[in-house]
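User: I'm preparing a small set of examples for a lab meeting where we compare how different chains pack in three dimensions. I only have the primary sequence for this one, and I'd like the structure in token form so I can line it up with the others. Please keep the answer compact; I'll paste it straight into my notes.
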Amino acid sequence: MANKIFVYIDHFGGRALPVSWEAVSAAVSLKTSYSSGVTAVVSGYEVGAIAEEAVSYGADEVFVANHEKLKEFRPEVYTSVLVKLMKDSVPEVFLMPNTSRTRELAAMVAVDLETGISPDVVAIDVVDGSIHATRPIYAGKLLTKVVCAIARPQILTLRSRAFKKPEPDTSLSGEIIQADVEVEDPVTEVLGYKESEAGVSLTDAGIIVSGGRGVSNNPSLTPIADITDEKGKEIWRAQQGFQLVRKLAEVLGAAMGASRAAVDAGYIPYAHQVGQTGKVVSPDLYIACGISGAIQHLAGMRTSKMIVAINKDADAPIFQVARFGVVGDLFNILPALTEALKKRLGK
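Assistant: Understood. Below is the structure token output for the 347-residue chain.
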């Protein structure tokens, strides 16, 4: 009997994304409810190692669509492969990690299969054979449960770090099956890739230290002489402020984030932006420095396990979601905090 639970393994550069293994863990948690094994799906070229890795994380079998036309991710080609597999296997549920690629892919697969999709899911329950998916709404202020009552498969994309990542177990066994699918000719061409300047991945990071527009508010800093316009001085001050944020992040082994206001002001590249129009993150620890807490930013980090806010304004909205708050000047607090942590961590 075919498995009822399918899970998609997203990968890049020959390596699976950590959130893919979180999705496998979520799929494994559904085995009892559906009395079924878990089938992982890996599409790409020369992806045998990723298929074997999927078994070590708990997949009972792995369908591998291996073809040179799948070497680069093209949504139209990957969609045709997944739709064929779904129609042949007819699973009850199809879980996908929530990444930039799968958000596009999941929507296209759902359209072709005429089924529904629950995006950015943070919790899963099974009631009478149907998935009840919990996801944030209203910029993360509320959580709602949604269900795809009729169409199958139920497609869900899972928020990064919302589900526990298991440890791989090489003693586990599973069947790796070469999927018999016809791969269409791509209609798009991948010209190349450019490495992000963000450093540690925001979506995978356990700790994030973020800076906001407040990092430019240090009047004691005197810009270098050849900066004459006010905007130039503001950006220069902000860059010095972000150096404090970066030093704290380096001590903690953390990723460095930023608010949209800081990105829009030109203080830091977009790759660092956390928020509704940036990265949505769920780290164990989120330190917000000079961030007031606009609703757009809160939507991207509200589900962090612990939030620490540092801001001069005691009435800043960020304090409403923070577990710990420090009211004060970040230019005094961050250097002291960084030095204290260096001593505590022996760095």
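A couple of notes for your slides: DSSP finds nine helices and 17 strands in the chain. The longest strand covers residues 130-137.

User: Perfect, thanks.
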